[in-house]
Amino acid sequence: MDSKYIHSGILRAILYADIFQYPLTAHEVCRFFIGNTPVSKVVVQKEIKNIPSLAFSDGYYALKEKKHNIRKRIDSEKISTQKYVIAKKICFLLSHIPTILLIGISGGLAMNNVQQDDDIDLFVITKNNMLWTTRLVTLLILRIMGVQRRKKSLHVSNKICLNMMVTVSGMAIPNKKRNLFTAHEVAQMKPLFIRGDIYKRFLLANRWIYTFLPNVIPAEAGIQKYIHIDSHLSPKGTSFFEAAHGNDKVNMFEFVAKKLQLWYMRSHVTTEVVSDTILAFHPKDYTETVLKKYNERVKRYKKI
């Protein structure tokens, strides 16, 4: 295989991570290699040593002029460990809601790249036709616990941000949203609770990510400690919810939950995607910003 292509894919992976001041291990460089053809881990580990614009220290690769970010990443990983403890406790509690099929960590924490003041982003997959009801119940629990991130809150450290929920039928990212940024978000999401085979179905629905990240290894391969609770855990709760939405038809609870939340959202939501299969709420959509910075970095390194 052409060494120029290999060097390009390696450097592109590091340039993308550099946007987040995030040096990579050799394994991560291989995992997030950017190109259109996969390259073996052995080849990546061999060729990465031959790229003069990279620095290596403490097991991490960074741009030479950004070597100081290696210390930042090491510090971030210590903070991330603390936040994971909180996230797992919250996920364990929320996993008792029988309409929730998957709860995953997204955002910076998914990559162990957070600061002490950061919140915790959750990604949730629900049963079909129960999106709005599930969100309402979830938010009520988070609010009662005092851990819900409120829109105008000044102190969000360790607060839970329920920024994206989808149903089984809405798991596939829409075509217009398929880009390098979103591919990373899908690949990086780390499941902490999985019911049945839903995570594998999620990855299958989003296999398009390999067109951007041909080497990408799904997060499941590196997650051995996720919470897995079968649906029989809460039989009473399951019976109630399933009776409420029998035969997958829109039910009274779902209708009321939707109306209440849409009314509330009119004056409280800034950037959102709202439907009966996907609810995505972000204080700011970083897609354009990140991709612009990435392209600028690529142009700066003319050897690519």
Structure, explained:
- The chain has 10 helices and 8 strands.
- By secondary structure, it is an alpha+beta fold.
- It folds into 2 domains: 81 residues, Arc Repressor Mutant, subunit A (Orthogonal Bundle), CATH 1.10.10; 208 residues, no CATH class.
- The strands form 2 sheets. The chain has a 6-stranded mixed beta sheet, with helices on both faces. A two-stranded antiparallel sheet has the order 1-2.
- Helix 5 packs across helix 9.
- The two termini are 16 Å apart.
- About 5% of the residues have low confidence.
Quick take:
This protein is an alpha+beta fold and about 300 residues long. The chain has helices spanning about 5-20, 25-30, 40-45, 70-95, 130-145, 180-190, 200-205, 235-245, 250-265, 285-300; strands spanning about 55, 60-65, 100-105, 120-125, 160-165, 190-195, 270-275, 280. It is about 40% helix and about 15% strand.
The unreliable regions are 220-224, 231-239
**Overall domain count:** 2
Multimeric organization: single chain
**Tally of strands:** 8
The number of helices is 10
Shape: globular
Q: What radius of gyration results from the CA coordinates?
A: 20 Å
Q: Find the structural class using helix and strand composition.
A: alpha+beta
Strand content: 5-15%
Widest sheet, order of strands: 6-3-4-5-8-7
Separation of the first and last Cα atoms: 16 Å
How would a textbook summarize the main sheet?
A: 6 strands, mixed
N-to-C order of helices and strands? HHHEEHEEHEHEHHHEEH
Mean pLDDT, rounded to whole units? Answer: 86
Helix content: 40-55%
